[in-house]
Amino acid sequence: MLPFSERLAAAIRRCATPAMVGLDPRVDFLPESLQPGPQASPEQIAEAYATFCCAVIDVVAELVPAVKPQAAFFEEQGPAGMAALWKVIDYARKKGLLVIIDAKRGDIGSTAEAYARGYLGRRFDERADWLKPPEGDSEVLDLTGVHSAWGGDAITVNPYVGEDSLQPFVATALDRRAGVFVLVRTSNAGARLFQDLVADGKPLYRHVAEYVEYLAKSTASREAAAASSYGAVGAVVGATYPEELEQLRQVMPHAWLLVPGYGAQGGTAREVAAAFDDQGLGAIINSSRSIIFAYRLPRYHNQFGPSRWQEAIEAATGEMIAQLRAETPAGRLVA
User: Fold this and answer.
1) Which of 96, 156, 169, 260 is the most buried (most CB within 10 A)?
2) Strand 179-185 with 233-237, pairing
3) pLDDT grade for 296, boundaries at 50, 70 and 90
4) Within 13 Å of residue 70, how many CA atoms lie on the same side as its CB?
5) Burial call 185-210: b when 16+ CB within 10 Å, e when fewer
6) What is the DSSP letter of 227?
7) Helix extents (H) in 177-308
C-alpha cells in the first residue's frame, strides 16, 4: 500500500479537487425524514446519524477525495454512537474515499500508542486467506501491526502535551502508511488565547509549525515518496486566518495542510489559495455544515425543498469545487 501522502495526492488528482466533506451530524439539523423524534434514545439517534452520513457519502463519493467524520458527535451517543461511527467509516472506505478521523487526540506514552494503534491503519478483512494460519497450525497471529480497529487513513492530534504525545502517532503512521494532522493554527475565534502567546520571539503556533515541518520532512524522506514531496505528518491551519495561512505554507513546505473553516465559519476559496503549491496540491479543504446541511441554506432550500436534501448536498459540493478551481491553484488539477 502506498504511503498516505501519495494516496491523498492520487485521490485529489483523480477527483481534480482538494475539497473534503466533514461529517458532523447534529440531531436538530437532520432532514425531517430522518428525525428520530423528540424523545429519541441514543440508539435511535445513532442510527439516524449512520443513515444520514451514509446517504451523504452516496452523494459525494464520486466528487471528492476524502471525508472527515467528527468523532465527538458520535461519541455523544455512547456505545451506539461509536458503532454508528464505525459503520460510517467502513461505508466511506468501501465507496473509495479516504477517511480522516477528526478526534484531536493528545496524550503521552502507552495511552498515545493505544490511540494511534486503534485509529490508524487501513482495516483488513480478518477472514482473508493471507491472515489465516496454515491448516493445522495453532499459532495465534498477532494482527496489531497490520490493521487497526477503526481503519482511519489519518487522524487529527493535539500537540499541547508535547513531543512524546506526537511520536507514537508518527511511528504508527509510518508503519501503517497512514497520516497525522497536527493542530497548528485552528479556525476558532478563541484560538489566539494560547496560540498567539509569544515565546523566544515567535508566537506559539509558529513553534508548533516548525516542529511539524521537521516531522513532515523527515517522514517524506523515510517514505521516499515518489509522487509527492509531502510527508506523513501534516498540519491543521484554519481558513479564517488567511495571512497566517500563507506564512505557514512557507514555514511547512513538506506538510499537507488540512484547512477547516471554509463555508459556515466564513472562509472562502480566495482566502485558502495560499495553502496550495504550484501544482494545486499540498492542501485539503474541509467544509462540513455548509455541505451536509445545505438544504437549510435559503438558496438551496428554495431550489430543492427539504425533501430533496441530497440534491442540495450535491449542488453545494459542486459549488465548492467550482470555487476552488476558479480562485486557487487547484484549478490546475483539471488539466
Assistant:
1) 169
2) parallel
3) very high
4) 17
5) bbbeeebeeebeeeeeeebbbbbbbe
6) S
7) 192-195, 204-223, 242-251, 269-272, 289-292, 298-304
- Position 290 confidence tier, pLDDT thresholds 50, 70, 90: very high
Give alpha helix (H) positions in the chain: 4-15, 42-60, 71-75, 78-94, 109-119, 163-176, 192-195, 204-223, 242-251, 269-272, 289-292, 298-304, 309-327
DSSP string covering 56-104, please?
HHHHHTTT-SEEEEBHHHHHTTHHHHHHHHHHHHHHHHHTT-EEEEEEE
User: 106-124: per-residue pLDDT in tens?
Assistant: 998 899 999 999 999 876 5
Q: Taking the CB of residue 306, how many other CB atoms lie within 10 A of it?
A: 12
How many other β-carbons are positioned within 10 Å of the β-carbon of residue 92? 26
Which residue numbers are catalytic?
Answer: 104
Cell numbers standing for residue 69: 467524520
Residue 2's CB: how many other CB atoms inside 10 A? 15
Predicted TM-score (pTM) above 0.85: yes
32-45 pLDDT per residue, tens: 999 998 899 999 99
Are 6 and 256 in contact by the 8 Å Cβ rule? The answer is no
Task: With a cut of 80, say whether residue 142 has pLDDT above it.
Answer: no
Torsional sign, CA 75, 79, 81, 83: positive
Beta bridge partners of 284: 258
| Cα–Cα dist 58/48, whole Å | 15
**With contact defined as beta carbons under 8 Å apart, do 294 and 319 qualify?**
no
Integer Cα distance of 273 and 328 in angstroms: 5
